[in-house]
């Protein structure tokens, strides 16, 4: 009985066991994502070293978010019109090239803030095509009842890389400088490219090469607008991240509370991801949750409460503990959102829905970091953190009141599981 309970609690790894294509994709993306986190760490620290400003660090998020939003709003029509595998091969190769340029500017000793912002903007624009196209692979590679488990495993990738990447980057930076972080990221793309190359063709089920213009973009907007479920899922994530994302505060809080050591900054950066890994490893009950909308809102409220604590405490142990709790809440919300969006969307619209999800999941946190930096500059990093957390709690409550259909929505339970409420 005890062993059965443990299996129910732990993450469902059937997608890794049963799908070789998904397994290669997962391992390749985990390697590449780790390199990407090292570049994120390096850019954040390089900008803060050049300027000493939390607002300038938040500006990195803005530089990423603006092109990500602009491209992401229209990229879905392209994704739903071409072979998605070939598209991801092209965009992943372009991302590798940008990583090489990051490394080149570091080796050249460039102190140009504008260049870092420009390269970050290019990352955002290309990622707004690459990430949504990549997300459409999962429903094609896995049976429907394994999609929530696949979403949880994607959360493992995201958060495991966010632990290993910043922690490794902190050690490498202290030993050899930021330029090594950028170089490792460029090399790490090899695994992701190989995994995508081995995939079968990923042409949309309705065919390719038709309707790539504004009409299909408008069609995607209408589909999302008319779905209270998708609107609720996207708004829930916007509320949590735009109002309370704390990552831009890490350099300043590290300097104020803990002396500014790169190793401590790496620990703070990894703490959210540690919580994410804990949340995904213990994600077995996710498959039993029928009311995923309500579960998203509960997770968003818990995220906000944890960030209130992060903003108020002073000790390193409590700071890390609250960030870990926030990471657990965050990853559970993301798992619910990802599986809900993929399962509630037909394949012919999946690229456009995934593009909208990308804009929310990638760009909105960057806008939240920009907000956090501005509030910290006007007040203090701690005030920025705890007021953001309170705002996220209030936002979850308002969404629950405004979209009762989202709260009541019941996902289709997998056939081999017992349905239950969230």
Fold topology:
Elements: H1 2-9, H2 14-18, H3 20-51, H4 54-79, H5 84-107, H6 113-135, H7 137-141, H8 147-176, H9 178-197, H10 214-225, H11 228-244, H12 250-258, H13 262-281, H14 292-312, H15 316-343, H16 347-378, H17 381-402, H18 404-408
Helix pairs in contact: 3-4, 3-8, 3-9, 4-6, 4-10, 4-16, 5-6, 5-9, 6-16, 8-9, 8-13, 8-15, 11-14, 11-15, 11-16, 11-17, 12-13, 13-15, 14-15, 14-17, 15-16, 16-17
Can you give me a brief rundown of this structure?
The protein is mostly helical. It has a single domain (14-202, 213-408), classed as Growth Hormone, Chain: A.
The main sheet comes to: none
- The arrangement of helices and strands along the chain is HHHHHHHHHHHHHHHHHH
Arithmetic mean pLDDT: 83
Helix/strand-derived category reads mainly alpha
Q: What is the rounded distance between the termini?
A: 23 Å
Number of domains: 1
Descriptors:
422 residues, mainly alpha, Growth Hormone, Chain: A, 18 helices, 80% helix, globular
Describe what you observe in this structure.
By secondary structure, this protein is an all-alpha fold. It has one domain: MFS general substrate transporter like domains (Growth Hormone, Chain: A, Up-down Bundle), CATH 1.20.1250. Helices cover 80% and strands 0% of the residues. The protein is built from 18 helices and no strands. It has helices at 2-9, 14-18, 20-51, 54-79, 84-107, 113-135, 137-141, 147-176, 178-197, 214-225, 228-244, 250-258, 262-281, 292-312, 316-343, 347-378, 381-402, 404-408. It starts with a helix and ends in a 14-residue tail after the last helix.
């Amino acid at each position: 009985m005890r062993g059965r309970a443990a299996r129910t609690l732990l993450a469902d790894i059937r997608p890794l066991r049963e799908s070789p294509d998904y397994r290669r994709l997962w391992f390749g993306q985990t390697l590449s994502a780790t390199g990407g986190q090292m570049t994120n760490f390096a850019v954040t620290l390089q900008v803060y070293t050049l300027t000493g400003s939390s607002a300038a660090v938040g500006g990195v998020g803005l530089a990423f978010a603006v092109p990500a939003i602009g491209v992401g709003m229209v990229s879905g029509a392209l994704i739903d019109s071409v072979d998605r595998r070939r598209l991801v091969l092209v965009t992943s190769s372009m991302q590798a090239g940008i990583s090489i340029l990051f490394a080149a500017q570091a080796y050249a000793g460039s102190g140009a803030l504008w260049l870092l912002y420009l390269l970050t903007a290019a990352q955002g624009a290309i990622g707004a095509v690459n990430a949504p196209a990549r997300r459409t692979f999962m429903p094609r590679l896995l049976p429907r009842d394994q999609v929530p488990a696949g979403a949880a495993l994607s959360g493992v990738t995201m958060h495991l890389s966010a632990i290993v990447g910043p922690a490794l980057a902190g050690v490498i930076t202290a030993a050899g400088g930021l330029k090594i972080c950028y170089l490792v990221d460029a090399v790490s793309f090899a695994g992701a490219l190989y995994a995508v190359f081995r995939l079968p063709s990923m042409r949309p089920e309705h065919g390719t090469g038709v309707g790539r213009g504004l009409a299909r973009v408008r069609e995607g907007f209408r589909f999302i607008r008319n779905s209270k479920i998708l609107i609720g899922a996207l708004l829930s994530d916007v509320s949590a991240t735009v109002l309370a994302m704390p990552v831009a505060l890490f350099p300043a809080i590290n300097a104020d509370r803990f002396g500014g050591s790169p190793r401590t900054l790496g620990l703070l950066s990894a703490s959210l991801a540690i919580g994410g890994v804990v949340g995904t490893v213990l994600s077995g009950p996710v498959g039993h949750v029928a009311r995923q909308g309500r579960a998203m809102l509960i997770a968003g409220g818990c995220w906000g409460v944890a960030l209130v604590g992060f903003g108020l405490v002073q000790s390193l142990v409590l700071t890390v503990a609250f960030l870990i709790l926030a990471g657990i809440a965050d990853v559970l919300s993301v798992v619910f959102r990802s599986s809900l969006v993929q399962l509630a969307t037909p394949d012919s619209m999946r690229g456009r829905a995934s593009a909208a999800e990308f804009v929310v999941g990638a760009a909105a946190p960057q806008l939240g970091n920009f907000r956090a930096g501005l509030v910290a500059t006007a007040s203090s990093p701690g005030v920025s953190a705890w007021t953001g957390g309170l705002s996220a709690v209030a936002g979850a409550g308002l969404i629950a009141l405004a979209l009762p259909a989202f709260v009541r929505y019941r996902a289709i339970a997998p056939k081999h599981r017992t349905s239950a409420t969230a």
